[in-house]
Design goal:
By secondary structure, the chain is α/β, with parallel strands linked by helices. The chain contains 14 helices and 13 strands. The strands form two sheets. A seven-stranded parallel sheet has the order 2-1-13-3-4-5-6, with helices on both faces.
Length: about 375
């Protein structure tokens, strides 16, 4: 999702983008006709070419990286922009201008080697990270000096256009309530458009605070809890837990396409970001120290009051003016904060206005402009 949003933002600058996608399933012979469905899935508004290149899982993406670089050479691309360390290392050492974005410290035996190979390559232009915490740790681990002009901190962003002219929470809930009835959602039929609503959007992996949300919901039966997203297996487990605990105030929607998220977020009076001290990604591991969650910037743009876990990396963006910042494992504190916000509409509105104003600094377009400041309107290739 982040890569697709960045490609769209780069394209909107007037730069030519060719997105090269690893083909593990044999789509490379059928062209880019899937682009339209991908655009709908990811909520894209500006088209750009998609190119599928062969990739075999047993080759650990080296074959794909090599094929992507060959494609970039044929296009005479001015820059390769990638999050794949294999592609970054290979391209930079072929004297191809390369920007490498990483969201974590390198892992395993090859991770550190590939990062150092990239940084030593004559084509290495920039190393992009998503948080100051990650930049500091890369410097501390002696990958590059703290005054390096090649290291740039760029948090994730949001598509601000999709958050213009949102309906008020009550109006949004009226629309959702009608949709839930049509869908016959299990644990959605009790969703009330007139009830104060607390929401969460995103994955349900370990460390995202799902258990905390369920505990809060158990203590506050008079409030709607709208949980949007999650893979089928995770949603199924949560439905069973809600049933066992008789949490009829919890509505679980399952996966919602990114383009449709604003109307779900707009239906909430308060949005939750209950990350725990350890946060799992889709591939496992712990990303809690360095994360820059896209939901954070979506929540800000939505203009709703936010309750967030007190993690140092989140304080790089949030402040007491934009969020109630809480201990990640204290259900009493979260319950009290939600109760306080439910009783203070003026405070909610003030925090929401502050959040919306803060979001203006984090558009995908602003991120792309910082990344390619001064770039010519020529070819940019994202591998």
């Amino acid at each position: 999702l982040q890569i697709m949003k960045m490609a769209q933002a780069i394209s909107s600058m007037g730069l030519l983008v060719d997105m090269i996608i690893p083909d593990f399933l044999g789509f490379s012979d059928v062209g880019d006709h899937r682009g339209e469905s991908l655009a709908a899935h990811y909520g894209l508004q500006s088209p750009f070419p998609l190119t599928w290149r062969p990739a075999k899982k047993g080759f650990r993406q080296y074959e794909y990286a090599w094929n992507a670089i060959r494609r970039a050479r044929r296009l005479e691309a001015d820059v390769i922009y990638t999050r794949l360390p294999q592609a970054a290392a290979l391209a930079a050492n072929q004297n191809i201008s390369t920007i490498f974005e990483t969201h974590d410290l390198p892992h395993g035996t090859l991770g550190p080697i590939l990062l150092r190979l990239f940084l030593r390559g004559s084509g290495a232009q920039k190393l992009i990270v998503i948080s100051r915490a990650l930049a500091d740790d890369l410097v501390q681990d002696n990958y590059l000096p703290d005054d390096s002009q090649r290291l740039q901190v760029l948090p994730d962003g949001v598509d601000l256009r999709r958050y213009q002219d949102l309906l008020a929470p009550e109006e949004s809930r009226e629309i959702l309530s009608a949709e839930f009835l049509k869908q016959n959602l299990e644990y959605g039929s009790t969703f009330s458009p007139v009830k104060f609503t607390v929401g969460y959007t995103g994955h349900l992996y370990a460390g995202r605070g799902v258990s905390l949300m369920m505990d809060i919901a158990a203590r506050m039966p008079e409030i709607n809890f709208l949980i949007v997203g999650g893979e089928k297996s995770d949603v199924s487990k949560l439905k069973n837990e809600a049933k066992d605990r008789r949490l009829e105030n919890v509505t679980l929607t399952g996966f919602i396409p990114n383009a449709a998220l604003p109307k779900y977020q707009a239906a909430c009076d308060v949005l939750l970001m209950p990350y725990q001290l350890q946060v799992s990604a889709s591939s496992g591991g712990d990303i809690g120290r360095y994360l820059s969650p896209m939901k954070l910037f979506e929540y800000l743009a939505c203009g709703r009051a936010i309750c967030s876990s007190d993690l140092p990396v989140l304080r790089e963006i949030l402040s007491p003016e934009t969020a109630v910042i809480l201990p990640p494992d204290n259900v009493d504190s979260w319950t009290e904060a939600i109760q306080m916000l439910s009783e203070n509409p003026n405070l909610r509105n003030e925090m929401g206005d502050n959040a919306r104003a803060a979001a203006q600094n984090y558009s995908w377009e602003a991120r792309a402009e910082s990344l390619f400041l001064g770039a010519k309107k020529t070819g940019i290739d994202q591998g």
